[in-house]
Structure formats: C-alpha cells, structure tokens
C-alpha cells in the first residue's frame, strides 16, 4: 500500500520535526498481517484499513500544515508529479506481469474480466469496477481476480485528487476573499465535516448493500480523512509515560487481533472498521515522545519494536509487497487443481513476493521516486563532498537507473494496454453465439441425449464454445425485458406467437427467465404467447420473501413485487409459468418454499392456473460457485465440473407434496435432461448446460424444448 513517508511532529514544544520510524514499522506490521491473512486465513485482516488511515495521516496532514503558511504555493502539479512517481511505476510493472501470468495460467474465459480490471486499475477506478461487478447480475459469481486487491489503490488515488482539490482550492478562495490569516482551521472543519458524513454513509451502506459499500469511495473516505485530522489535531500531543504505554499496547492488540475476531469483508468500512483504525491511531499517538527522548524496550516497548529494522524495512517495501502478493496467490490457486494453499506453498508465495518487492522497490520505485536527486539538485558543499567520493560515476549510475526504470514502466503500460486493446478488438468474433438447432443437429443433440437417448460424438467440439457460452443469454436479457436489481419497474414483453389469444405469463427471477428460450420456440409452434414479468434475483411471491424468517430479498424487489402481482392480475393469463423449487443455500438439495405455495393458492383464488417448473442444480464445490466454462477451460471434465445428483437435487420433486390439493397447479420437471442417475454434468449432448454457475444456456434450453412441449401439452390441455 502507498503511504508517503514524511516527518511527523512529536511534541508541541519541538522546533524541528522528528522522523517517526515507528510509523514506518506500523506499515510493515500492517502489510505482514495483510499477506498472512490473505494467504492462510482467507479473510480481511484490517491491515488495508490501517494503510488508508496512514495515507491520510501523511498526505492530508501535509496539505493541511501547508495551508497554515501564506507562502505555500497552490500549484497542484508538483504534488501530482510526486504521486505519479511514487505510485504508478510499480503499479504498471506489476499489472503487466499479472496480465502475462493470466494469459499463461488462467483460462481465456476469465481474460475479459481481468483485462477490464487492468484498465480500471491503471486509471484508478478499479474499486468502482468491482462494485458494479458485485452488483452485476451476470457476473455475481465471477471467480476472484488477481487484480482485485487494487481497489484500495483506486480509492487512494481518488482521495488524493479530492484532497488536492479541496485543500488547495479552499486555500486559494480564502486568499482571494478573506486575505488575512490562514484557512487552516476552516479547512480542518471542512475535513471534520467530511469525516462525519462519510462515517454516516458507510454505516448506512453496510445495511443497504455491503458488497457495494466495501468498495465505495464515499464510504471509505473517512478512513483517510481521520488520519489527516489526527496528523493535525493530535500529532503534537505527548502523553505521560503510563498513558503512552497503555495506548501503544492497546493499539497493537487492536491492530493484530482484528482478523482473528471478525472478517472485515462483511463489516468494513462500517463502524467495526474503527477497531483496527483506532488501534493504529493509538499507536501513532502513543509514539509521540518528549523532545530528545528515544524509545527503549523498557519504557516504550511497542514504539521501540516498530522502529526496529525488520518492521521498518517491511514498511519500506510495503507498497510493492502489497502489489505482488495477491496476483501470485491467485495465479497459484488457478494453477493448483486442489485450489488450496498449504504451509509450503504459502511460504513460497511470501518469499517470492518479498524478493519481487525488494527488486521493485530498489530498481523501479526508488530511482523514479528520487528523480529530482538524480538530476543533481544538490548544494555546492554536497557536490564538493561527492567529488571527493567519486560521485560523478554514482550520479551516472543513478541516471541510468532512472532511464532504465522509466523505459520498463513505459513498456509495461504499453504492453498491458496493447493486450487489452487487441482482446477488445477481437471480442465480437469470439463472443458471437451460433444458433444451434439441437432438435435436428446430430452432433449437438443437447438435452435429447438424456431425454431420447440420442448419441453424441465424443470428439465433437462443445457448442457454444467456452468463450461464447457466457454470452448465450436469454432473449429477455438481451432485449432489456427483465427489471434490474436497481429498478422496481415492471417490464412486459411478448414472445412466442405474439398474435395468439392464449397467454402464459412467465414470472419471477432469473431461474424462471432462463426457460424463455424454450417457451418462445414452443409458443411459436403451438400458438400461444409468452408475456414476461421478470426481475433479477426476485422470484415472485406475495411479500418478496422466500425464507422462513420472512426477511425481504432486497428493497427494490419488495417495491417491484406488488406491481408485478398487479400486472399479472391485469393480464389474466391462462397460466402463470414460474419456478417450483429452489436450493437450500447454494448447494441443494432443492425445496419448495412456503411462499411459493402461498402464491399458487392466491392465483388460484383469482382463477389463474399455474405451471411450476423445478429448479436446476447450482454448481458449487463447497468453497464457492463454479462457472462451467472456467472449470472446463481449466481442464475439468463435464462430470468433474458438475454436481452429484443426490447432493443437488432431492430424490423426489419436493413441489409434489407442496402442491397437493391445489387443483390450479401443474408441475413440470426437466431434471432428467440435466442429470443422469449419478451426476448433473455441465455438458450434455455436446451442448454446454450453464452460461455461468447456475443459469442455463439458451442453447441447452432450446435443445430441451421438445420435452418441454411434451410436458406442457397435458399440463395446459392445448395439444
């Protein structure tokens, strides 16, 4: 993580500034916690939050102190130049190496998302890329990216720009309008107000949408702002010795224990983020020593420990170490079929990360960060001393290092962006999904291989291809005929035979939606229209709940539900087509929620019949969802990438008992087209079944339209 090492005041009575080696050590401790918890614990340690607070402490504190002097220049360019020299070189080189590693290790099915994040990371909006991905319907189960950790760098970059704008802009306005005194107190008040607003926003966001809140710059802003406030308000306070000891010991405990007590991914940057940040600020406050006094093991043990060479050196390379450790971890997990980190492999990742961080800091960060010194900006006395020591050769070496580092950074950035540009330019040829007529295609029978025993050649390529299947979406998604997570609008679209008088209303969430590819075909053939009333992640119920505790699915789903019920009542369809079951958790087996049954009963009271189709197996290995194309691209077989039938599907359709006594309900079950007696593979009849980890591909659904028609005929009585 990036924090600028600048001196910090340690006492009001000091006339000179003393360098705080213990804060360098605190950065070293924080990066050690980040790496260890990422590699072996698989959770957030709070170290990143400590880094953010220290970034604010150094950068914002420096700006606010500068605002107190009328001689401080207001040109932002020198600040920006220093930031670019400090942050961008190591970032560009690490990203280029990660892009190369991605192409060598990860399957091409994951390249697009990682390349999108490459651009987002280089332009410092990676946190927003991840926030939108977390909320994005089609990518909700995307595998972890080797660039995911760079969200924090984007937050810092955005903070630096905002801080420069507010502090320098506010100072300029003060000098223009007030023309006396300094705006320091005014700017401190502005920062305090921003801190309070961000704290409030992060608390609200945790309840509303934690996945978004985690990456939201506005929610994270207080973690940096509070560091800047401490640099101004508290950094000059020297506590009595007993309080210093209590503060630093308590602070160390809070920082180190965070990851053991709770996983910050579920709570930060909400109120619990004060736990590690408060600990860091206690260490900063308790490390302020009286003028002329040095920390000793007896009186100030924590300050002395953090000022030691090991932690200070870790602090020096903390930025590069943060950049390197995560891509190495993720690429190793992608290479290792067991998808786990042992003590040996984890230790190897740490050692390699340390070596790369040391090299990066010495040969890339340092030559470019110290560019001004390499240009020979020295006093005459210093030049004379250098002449006696043979400094011209050293200056030449510094210049060569500067040129070499600059060239490497430029090549890395150009290579990364060039690779992304090539991949984007050729995207249409890879992603175009061919139409597969699986009802007649002898090579790609799809569901007919299970339903009708149609043989499929073992050596035939899969359709759609691994790169195409992610785009094999329902036509309602492509046409914008499903309400998004953010919207509560009811969108009605018509498929099948649009001129027909007989109507089926396809209602609910995505697991009802993915059957539209088959319903559209059957409707056009047998003469009925299909009207969609759909919303992402929102199966239709009476009260927008599907759990035993009656908890709402989410806010816009609750707003959409009564509107959707009204739309269905207004349509007065012959049948409502919806899902009959859903898995327990994300692994199954499936159950029929009571809320579904309540809806069926309520529709029956309005004279509306129901066709309820059993849900599909969800791909999950117990450690998280499995995207079918990624698993196949990694060399997995259709059976290895699929699910055991007994674990994902109940032996008997649970909706059979749930619908007993409801004369208006007809059940449809296409499970035997997805699963053989033992397993539910991800490829059936040379057609890939899933376009992600739990949504059916349009091609497979069309291949099942024959069986869908066979079951719909008796269910509707129309043929």
Automatic annotation (TrEMBL):
It comes from the Bacteria. Its EC number is 2.3.1.-. The chain crosses the membrane at residues 24-41, 47-66, 87-105, 159-178, 185-204, 224-243, 250-268, 274-291, 317-335, 341-360, 402-423. It is an enzyme of class 2 (transferase). Residues 21-360 form the Acyltransferase domain. Residues 491-702 form the SGNH domain. Keywords: Acyltransferase, Membrane, Transferase, Transmembrane, Transmembrane helix. One of its GO terms (molecular function) is acyltransferase activity. This is Acyltransferase family protein.
């Amino acid at each position: 993580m990036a924090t600028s090492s600048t001196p910090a005041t340690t006492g009001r009575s000091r006339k000179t500034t003393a360098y705080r080696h213990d804060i360098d050590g605190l950065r070293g401790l924080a990066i050690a916690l980040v790496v260890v918890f990422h590699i072996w614990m698989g959770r957030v340690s709070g170290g990143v939050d400590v880094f953010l607070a220290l970034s604010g402490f150094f950068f914002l504190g420096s700006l606010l102190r500068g605002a107190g002097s009328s001689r401080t220049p207001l040109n932002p360019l020198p600040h920006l130049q220093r930031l670019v020299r400090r942050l961008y070189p190591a970032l560009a080189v690490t990203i280029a190496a990660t892009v190369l590693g991605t192409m060598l290790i990860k399957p091409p099915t994951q390249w697009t998302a990682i390349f999108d994040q490459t651009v987002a990371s280089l332009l410092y909006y990676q946190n927003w890329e991840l926030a939108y991905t977390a909320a994005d319907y089609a990518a909700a189960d995307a595998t972890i990216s080797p660039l995911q950790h760079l969200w924090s760098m984007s937050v810092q970059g955005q903070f630096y720009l905002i801080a420069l704008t507010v502090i320098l802009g506010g100072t300029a306005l003060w000098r223009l309008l007030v023309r006396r005194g300094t705006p320091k107190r005014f700017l401190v008040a502005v920062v305090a107000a921003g801190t309070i607003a961000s704290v409030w926003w992060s608390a609200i966001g945790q309840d509303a949408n934690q996945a978004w809140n985690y990456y939201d710059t506005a929610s994270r802003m207080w973690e940096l702002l509070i560091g800047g406030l401490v640099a101004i308000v508290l950094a000059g306070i020297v506590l009595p010795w007993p309080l210093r000891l209590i503060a630093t010991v308590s602070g160390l405990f809070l920082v180190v224990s965070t990851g053991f007590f709770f996983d910050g991914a579920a709570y930060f940057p909400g109120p619990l983020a004060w736990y590690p940040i408060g600990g860091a600020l206690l260490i900063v406050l308790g490390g302020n020593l009286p003028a002329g006094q040095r920390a000793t093991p007896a009186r100030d043990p924590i300050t002395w420990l953090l000022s030691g060479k090991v932690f200070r050196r870790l602090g020096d390379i903390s930025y590069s170490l943060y950049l390197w450790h995560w891509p190495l971890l993720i690429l190793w997990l992608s290479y290792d079929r067991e998808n786990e980190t042992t003590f040996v492999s984890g230790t190897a990742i740490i050692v390699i990360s340390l070596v790369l961080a040391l090299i990066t800091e010495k040969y890339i960060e340092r030559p470019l960060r110290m560019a001004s010194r390499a240009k020979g900006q020295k006093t005459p006395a210093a030049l004379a001393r250098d002449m006696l020591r043979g400094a011209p050769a050293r200056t030449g070496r510094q210049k060569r290092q500067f040129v070499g580092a600059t060239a490497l950074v430029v090549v890395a950035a150009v290579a990364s962006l060039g690779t992304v540009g090539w991949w984007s330019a050729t995207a249409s040829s890879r992603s175009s999904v061919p139409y597969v007529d699986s009802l007649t295609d002898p090579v790609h029978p799809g569901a007919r291989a299970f339903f009708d025993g149609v043989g499929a050649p073992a050596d035939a390529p899969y359709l759609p291809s691994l790169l195409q299947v992610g785009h094999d979406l329902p036509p309602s998604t492509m046409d914008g005929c499903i309400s998004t997570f953010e919207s509560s609008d009811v969108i009605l679209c018509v498929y099948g035979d649009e001129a027909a008088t007989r109507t089926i209303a396809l209602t609910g969430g995505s697991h009802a939606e993915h059957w539209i590819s088959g319903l559209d075909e059957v409707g056009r053939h047998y003469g009925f229209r299909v009207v969609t009333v759909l919303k992402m992640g929102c199966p239709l119920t009476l009260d927008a709940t599907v759990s035993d505790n009656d908890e709402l699915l989410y806010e816009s789903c609750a707003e959409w539900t009564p509107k959707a019920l009204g739309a269905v009542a207004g349509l007065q369809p012959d049948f409502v087509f919806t899902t009959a079951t859903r898995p327990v958790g994300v692994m199954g087996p499936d159950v029929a929620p009571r809320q579904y049954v309540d809806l069926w009963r309520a529709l029956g009271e309005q004279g509306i019949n129901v066709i309820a189709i059993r849900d599909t197996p969800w791909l999950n290995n117990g450690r998280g969802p499995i995207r079918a194309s990624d698993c196949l691209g990694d060399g997995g077989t259709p059976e290895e990438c699929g699910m055991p039938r007994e674990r994902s599907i109940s032996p008997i359709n649970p909706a059979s008992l749930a619908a007993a006594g409801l004369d208006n309900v007809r059940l449809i079950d296409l499970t035997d087209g997805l699963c053989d007696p033992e397993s539910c593979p991800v490829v059936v009849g040379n057609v890939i079944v899933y376009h992600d980890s739990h949504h059916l591909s349009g091609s497979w659904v069309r291949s099942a339209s024959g069986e869908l028609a066979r079951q719909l005929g008796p269910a509707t009585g129309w043929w």
